[in-house]
Write a structure and sequence with these properties.
The chain is α+β, with helices and mostly antiparallel strands. It has one domain: Orthogonal Bundle (Arc Repressor Mutant, subunit A). The protein is built from 4 helices and 3 strands, in the order αβααββα. It has a 3-stranded antiparallel sheet. Strand 2 and strand 3 form a beta hairpin. The longest helix is centred in the last third of the chain and has 27 residues. It starts with a helix and ends with a helix.
C-alpha cells in the first residue's frame, strides 16, 4: 500500500484508497482499512481530519529520513556496545 502513496505523491481519503488498492496492488478491499490504520499506527502514513473528512498521505522523503534516523540510532548502539564490552 505504501507504493500507492510513494508513486502518486498525493493525499487520499479512505474511500479513494479503498478503490485504488484492490485494483492496482491486489489488496483485498476488506483489509484496506485495517492495513491503512496499521500504517498510521506505525507512523508510516500520516493522517489529518479536515472538516468531516480524514486525509491520508505518505511521502518518500519522510520514509528516507526515518530510515536514516533508525540507521544512526543503531550505529550509535553498536558503538556503545564496542566501547563498553570490547575496549574495557
Amino acid at each position: 500500500m505504501m507504493e500507492i502513496f510513494f508513486e502518486t505523491k498525493d493525499v487520499f481519503q479512505l474511500k479513494d484508497i479503498e478503490k485504488i488498492a484492490p485494483k492496482e496492488k491486489g489488496i483485498t478491499s476488506m483489509s484496506v482499512k485495517e492495513i491503512l490504520q496499521s500504517l498510521v499506527d506505525d507512523g508510516m502514513v500520516d493522517t489529518d481530519r479536515i472538516g468531516t473528512s480524514n486525509y491520508f498521505w505518505a511521502f518518500p522523503s519522510k520514509a528516507l529520513h526515518a530510515r536514516k534516523r533508525k540507521l544512526e540510532e543503531l550505529e550509535s548502539q553498536v558503538n556503545l556496545f564496542y566501547e563498553k564490552y570490547l575496549f574495557i
